[in-house]
Amino acid sequence: MTQHIDLVLERTLDAPVDLVWAAYTDPEHLKQWFAPKPYQITECELDLRPGGIFRIRMVGPDGFDTGHGGAGCVLEVEQGKKLTWTSALGPGYRPAEMGEGCESFPMTAIVTFEDAGNGRTAYRAVALHKDAKDKETHEKMGFHDGWGTVAGQLEEFAKSLKVSA
User: Which residues form the Activator of Hsp90 ATPase homologue 1/2-like C-terminal domain (predicted)?
Assistant: First the structure.
């Protein structure tokens, strides 16, 4: 990680790693928490293998809609521990077209999950950018507030899995 071009969010979630992982890697679960409310994910495709697809469609009450959006590419999967994906490539490692708004710059997300003891998870999301301009754009779009809100929603959703499991 390079501080001047990357963003980091770290949280200790009050839910065990296996439930946080399940919430993050099951497309139907991911749709429940991945967008900061009142925004929502209406479509999600996730193929958990290197070269697989990572695609979401986010919509909001203000007319925001990523459309069918460009699909990202899963780069790395360590079961229960790490998921890395990028918007710079599409499925099968094909170069991706950049869109508008939050899809206007390429980034790579490295998300890690570690047992923090007592049924909690150390959650870390790192957004890698190609340059300081893209980092600044992402930061101004609300990286810390948005991804922080979503981390809280992830925690609540994962805890609900425990109740219904």
Answer: 14-157
Per-residue pLDDT tens, the chain, 165 aa: give them. 678 899 999 999 999 999 999 999 999 999 999 999 999 999 999 999 999 999 999 899 998 887 766 789 999 999 999 999 999 999 999 998 876 655 678 999 999 999 999 999 999 999 999 999 999 999 998 999 999 999 999 999 999 997 665
Architecture of domain 6-164: 2-Layer Sandwich (3.30)
Q: Which of 145, 118, 139, 137 has its CA nearest to residue 13?
A: 118
pTM, to two decimals: 0.92
Query: Crossing angle of helices 132-140/143-164, nearest 10°?
Result: 60
